[in-house]
């Protein structure tokens, strides 16, 4: 399929406000997509990363999660408006291409692909280290290889199997958090366990106040909190394979507030009421610290299993999304045509296979040279994930403007308060990026962005030249 053909199909679909026929099997039902949406908001950023945020901000980290949670909901509602306009698997890459120009769509697709490749590398490697908690004799590379091959095999069977696996991965995480909340409430109200004598909601303000590190300390944790929500937008990539996208996706998106309220804010309120914020340290899971304080001997093992599940869930999601993004790019003439072909089960196995190969190579690099060079690449994943959010918001603003002028059909799932809420979310993301530049721990993410932008510009120019050469008419040979 040439880029000219894609443009013609794209124009007709844009006018009709319909999704193009992509060839995927719609095997993701309401149950799977609901849990994929829940799982996307619960990851290692909560189970491990929250410890660093708590140590920097104290109890006020609860407020930080609430504010960022609101912004995430605004982003998801903006995405929902676009999804109801045209539910496609290319999602924000496709919307960026339509409303912001082909170059933005090109950058978004390749950047999101890279984000998940790098994330897959780190998550599989992390999962391998978690295995050593139970058996240090198992080499890390062996576990990483087994996990990668197993997840790849699952992604080769059918999208329904992928959705079922994500359902149970998410169920483990949800059950663990709800269990921790219930145990914590019991400790606070009934006073059982060795933490019962000190557990109290007054711990939220009794050790230096609610803002022990000042407002500035809380603001500097916003980027950590934003990172915890990366991948929540993955539900948009499922649009092309949802059984009934216009019914299922709005339900999944509208559950974002209570998911954040329960699994993040609710869990942190209970944990910080059981254990003083002064106990938490960077690199230590707040769940592990809470279980240790309560005195549950199996607590650390339980949390380790849950974190292992979270890492495998993220890697599984990465394999799923990379194949879809590469195929979307190929269908639009912005990637190798090799990736357009689907398997007999309707799966983009070529794109997934290439991505998994890079993940395996990355695991090897991480094993051989676990130094700063690799960490620099990993840090870039954070800014690339936020780029997808920016494109979603900008695309929604352009779409809403066109729809209001009658140039496009109105969405059945309008973002509340738009365009003002989308502008607010964009301003908030801009503020967080500025803070990333101030914080030396996250500044490296911004250094990599200009280099990647240069690579994208060169790649896009090469594609434009290729397309121009294909469209240039050949002069007929002179006679005689």
Uncertain regions spanning at least 5 consecutive residues: 1-20, 476-480
Which topology does CATH recognise? Amino acid/polyamine transporter I
Tally of distinct domains: 1
- The named CATH superfamily: Amino acid/polyamine transporter I
Biggest sheet, in brief?
none
Work out the helicity level.
over 70%
Oligomer: single chain
Report how far the terminal alpha carbons are from each other: 37 Å
Shape: globular
Proportion of residues in β-strands: under 5%
Q: What structural category do the secondary elements indicate?
A: mainly alpha
Membrane topology: Multi-pass membrane protein
Biased composition (Basic and acidic residues): 7-24
Domain Amino acid permease/ SLC12A: 33-470
Transmembrane segments: 35-54, 60-79, 99-121, 141-162, 174-195, 215-239, 260-280, 300-320, 347-367, 373-397, 418-438, 444-463
How would you describe this structure to a colleague?
By secondary structure, the protein is mainly alpha-helical. It has helices spanning 3-16, 30-40, 44-47, 50-57, 61-85, 91-99, 102-131, 140-157, 159-190, 214-219, 222-228, 245-254, 256-274, 286-294, 299-331, 349-368, 372-404, 420-438, 443-471. The chain has one domain (3-16, 25-410, 417-463): Amino acid/polyamine transporter I (Up-down Bundle), CATH 1.20.1740.10. The radius of gyration is 23 Å and the shape is globular. It starts with a helix and ends in a 9-residue tail after the last helix.
């Amino acid at each position: 399929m040439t880029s000219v053909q894609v443009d013609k199909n794209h124009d007709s679909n844009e006018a009709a406000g319909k999704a193009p026929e992509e060839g995927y099997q719609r095997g993701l039902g309401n149950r799977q997509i609901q849990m994929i949406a829940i799982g996307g908001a619960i990851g290692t950023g909560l189970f491990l990363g929250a410890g660093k945020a708590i140590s920097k901000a104290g109890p006020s980290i609860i407020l930080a999660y609430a504010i960022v949670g609101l912004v995430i909901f605004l982003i998801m509602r903006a995405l929902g408006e676009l999804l109801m306009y045209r539910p496609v698997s290319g999602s924000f890459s496709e919307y960026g291409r339509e409303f912001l120009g082909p170059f933005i769509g090109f950058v978004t697709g390749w950047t999101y692909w890279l984000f998940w490749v790098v994330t897959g590398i780190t998550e599989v490697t992390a999962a391998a280290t978690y295995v050593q908690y139970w058996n240090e004799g198992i080499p890390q590379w062996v576990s990483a290889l087994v996990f990668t091959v197993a997840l790849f095999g699952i992604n080769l069977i059918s999208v329904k199997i992928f959705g079922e696996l994500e359902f149970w991965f998410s169920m483990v995480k949800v059950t663990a958090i709800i269990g921790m909340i219930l145990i914590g409430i019991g400790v606070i109200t009934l006073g059982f366990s060795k933490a019962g004598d000190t557990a109290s909601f007054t711990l939220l303000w009794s050790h230096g106040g609610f803002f022990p590190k000042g407002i500035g300390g809380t603001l500097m944790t916003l980027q950590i909190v934003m990172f915890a929500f990366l991948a929540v937008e993955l539900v948009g990539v499922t649009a092309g394979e949802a059984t009934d996208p216009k019914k299922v996706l709005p339900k999944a998106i509208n559950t974002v507030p209570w998911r954040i309220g329960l699994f993040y804010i609710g869990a942190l309120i209970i944990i910080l009421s059981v254990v003083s914020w002064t106990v938490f340290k960077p690199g230590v899971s707040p769940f592990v610290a809470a279980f240790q304080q309560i005195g549950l001997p199996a607590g650390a093992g339980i949390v380790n299993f849950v974190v292992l599940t979270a890492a495998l869930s993220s890697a599984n999601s990465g394999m799923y999304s990379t194949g879809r993004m590469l195929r979307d790019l190929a269908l639009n003439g912005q990637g190798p045509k090799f990736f357009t072909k689907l398997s007999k089960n309707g799966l983009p196995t070529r794109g997934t296979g290439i991505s998994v190969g890079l993940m395996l190579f990355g695991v090897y690099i991480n094993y051989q040279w676990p130094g700063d060079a690799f960490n620099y690449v990993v840090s870039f994943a954070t800014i690339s994930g936020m780029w997808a959010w920016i494109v979603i918001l900008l695309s929604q603003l352009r779409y809403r403007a066109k729809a209001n002028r009658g140039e496009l059909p109105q969405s059945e799932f309008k973002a509340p308060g738009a365009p003002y809420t989308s502008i607010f979310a964009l301003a908030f993301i801009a503020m967080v990026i500025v803070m990333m530049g101030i914080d030396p721990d996250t500044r490296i993410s911004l250094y990599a962005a200009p280099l990647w932008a240069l690579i994208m510009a060169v790649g896009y120019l090469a594609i434009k030249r290729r397309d121009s050469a294909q469209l240039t008419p050949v002069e007929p040979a002179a006679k005689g």
